[in-house]
Write a structure and sequence with these properties.
By secondary structure, the protein is α+β, with helices and mostly antiparallel strands. The chain is about 20% helix and about 25% strand. It has one domain: Alpha-Beta Complex (Sulfite Oxidase, Chain A, domain 2). The protein starts with 10 loop residues before the first helix and ends in a 13-residue tail after the last helix.
Length: about 290
Amino acid sequence: MLIKQPADIPSSDITPHSTYMRRRDFLAALVTLPIAGKMVTTTDGQTTKDAVTSYTNYYEFGSSKGDASRNGSAFKASPWSVTIDGLCAKPGTLTLEDLLKPHPLEERVYRHRCVEGWSMVIPWDGFPLASLIKRFEPSAKAKFVEFTTVNRPEQMPGIRRRVLPFPYVEGLRMDEAMHPLTILATGLYGESLLTQNGAPLRLVVPWKYGFKSAKAIVKIRFVEKQPLNTWQDANAEYYGFYANVNPDVPTPAYSQATERRIGDFFQRRTLPFNGYADQVASMYAGMDPKKLF
């Protein structure tokens, strides 16, 4: 009788491929995080996973598009906790597992638009930010939600270069934060987030430019006054607080009327509010669209 050694046994003989591909469903069940369903908000073809995980803006790891995937190996996304405080009735600090338990994950397929003129279509796994906000019962004085990201210069070489004022801070108006399109993402393409995509918890606001989607969030704070977000602090001439996609408002250096979808050769017309105008434009009725960037 021939007895195989472990090294001689193909992994497919131990775990069937179909079971391996559903490993995330099994892990999710252990922390009561069922995949609730798929919300498709665009019919555009999805960007390849390889592009989404290798071509990113993440200045904590460096200013080039490939720096986060090259320099992120030292980053530790577990264990993780998030502090929620400010103008709310139930502040606290929770582990990621405790933070997620009441919120079934949903797959959301969104357009993702970056200010430099390129875009992607990404299937995120996450849950509505609104469901988390309600849990902590913000007061009537809370008009904005401020997000602060992790600040670990020993693991994030871009912080040591001081290309931006870290830690990275972002903010949303309360109605923006409560909108059903706004999610906290924990995964993409059916798998957990990688470091370069903001592991373990990031914001996704699909009608805004990508810099509004804070990565590796460690603090959420309910505040009365509009937060000073990092890019506005660094260069207010280019970056405002709202960052709504508006093809009719150029930056001081270039037009934003067109964009290139990663993987495509030709440019395409940029859509107002990144294609979500029918769902979000009413929140800005009566406001000067040029001031919403």
